Hints:
The protein is an alpha+beta fold. It is 38% helix and 19% strand. The chain has an 8-stranded mixed beta barrel.
Amino acid sequence: MPQSALDRELLLVPVPAPGSVALQPVPAAPVSVDSSGGRHAGRDQHAQRTDSVAFVVRSALLMTAILTVALVAQLALISGLEHRSAQTALFNQFRTELALGTAPTGPTTSGNHALPLGAPIAVLSIPSIGVHQVVVEGTTGTVLAKGPGHLRSTVFPGGAGTSVLYGRATAFGGPFGHIDGLAKGATITVTTGVGRSVFRVVDVRKAGAKVHPVAAGRARLILGTASGSAFVPSGVVLVDADKAGTPLAADNPAVGTVPASELPLGTDTSTLWALFFWLEVLAVLVAGAVWTWRRRGHAQAWIVFTAPLLLVWIFTADQVTRLLPNLL
């Protein structure tokens, strides 16, 4: 049967079976790109970086603050305990050497070598200001941490000529902190391996002031320390004292000149390597503490790192203290 054009078009359209439901095509939902999502992710990453930088800055500031506190504690308290311990050991050593007759009688050893820095050479007593100290050889900052020191380019205490002893004014016990208050005529006693010498104060002066000449064949003792406010030296104060009676026998100084580190307000950099070492240890510990704080928890960081950090901070502050002027 011939088919019209309309019949042919209807044959191309599928006819649903009886009882079935025709499915209508569902139009696809329009896809839209939320450009704010990328911006949110960028803001989150930026915030994380900002938080990390802020945490590092806070950690650095906290470390600096604690190190500053440790330095103040070292100068005001711990250094005094170190000085007391060193003086006890030095007194026991020097007392034994006096009893055995092996105490130094001059600036050299029995083998004609210069005495080592820090060796005990005398006992200094100033009753009017409560000073009773063992004097050691040398005047670097590290040596003066133990007690008053003998300037190696001057004669042995009690010998003919001028002997100079330097001591700290504030840190490490501050044994010479009150010598500027000595009155004329005050008694100073020095006991060495040669004998006992009694000196009388004749003048208290600033460095550079006019010096009373020493009579020929006589012995003079000069005490020196920093002047000015505590921990902020502004100069040097000196005390001149002349020996009563005949000078003791004494050899010439072992050295003619001393390095700048042994002169008044000199700084000693020989232990700078130790400061770098402790700073490196401190940096490693701080990095470990920060990592533990962020990754493992606050309690774990406190438990593991508190004691090591405090100990290393003390050692670091001690090395910083030794780099300060020797009469501080």
